[in-house]
Fold:
Amino acid sequence: MSDVLDLKTLDDAGRAALERLIVTLADSKRLMGIRYSDWLLGAPSIETGISASSMAQDEWGHARLLYSMLKDLDKDPVPYEHDRASEAYASVSVLDEEMPDWAALVAAMTLADGALSTVLRSFSEGTFETARSRVPKMLAEEEFHSSLGAAWYRRLADTDGEARELLTAATKSMLPSLLAWVGADDGAAHAMVDAGVIAPAAAEKLSLKYRHSKDAEVISAVGVGMALGWL
Amino acid sequence: MREIVYDVFARKGRGDQLVHIGYVDAFDDETAKVYAWKTYDEENWFEMCVVERDAIIPVTNGEGHFAQLKRARDE
Structure:
């Protein structure tokens, strides 16, 4: 998409929708970073712990870049970053609680981080110029998260015991709400589609992108996507 | 599950030599790539590669690092 959005043309509802999109992505990135940081010391190996640490830093950096986009809407990002109660966060709900086991973190790495990347990729291809310039670097860093998530997901899915059961349970728990978020069909989602902020020009297509992403292929390893009619 | 040792090589700039900078334990090539990139992130590397240690063939029989590792492995 080549047209650049002139923010002055957005009405109040459109500005509110863009603010909501940015804050949801930023809050989710911040929470994703916290969930990675929860496993710095409990990861299965030193290398995995170091990777979790690095990914936590990536996510917090992405969150800061996203919060700063609020300046384009004449909003001060500082109160959003530092002065809100946790109840005010707009992050995807699957990140609200600590991951109870490594399998749940692997599921979040693949499903939640994957869903965020799907929406961010669309954001970077839309009409909001700041997203077009800043998001591609985030997505390049996310390639490593995706690779690690997929490798661990397959590894746990290939086992016969408790690890596979935990992975399956976490996947079943996370997938429906993430799919609902990615394929949101409310007024705010339509406002963003109409303004070209989210491309392609239909939230339904975005949902399909997620369904056909590399993450979906990985999830098929435990058959959960099939069971939920997702794949 | 068996972990594999991968040696990590990198060069800082286009014209620099590729040097051995360390190793990681990983269970496949994909995880080795991520672990290497995330562990040895002290430089903005121009190029980084990982090589399964078992695939490295020492040319000399001296006291070199990889020759010693191979001897220890073969014993």
Summary: Residues 61 and 71 of chain B are 9 Å apart (CA to CA).
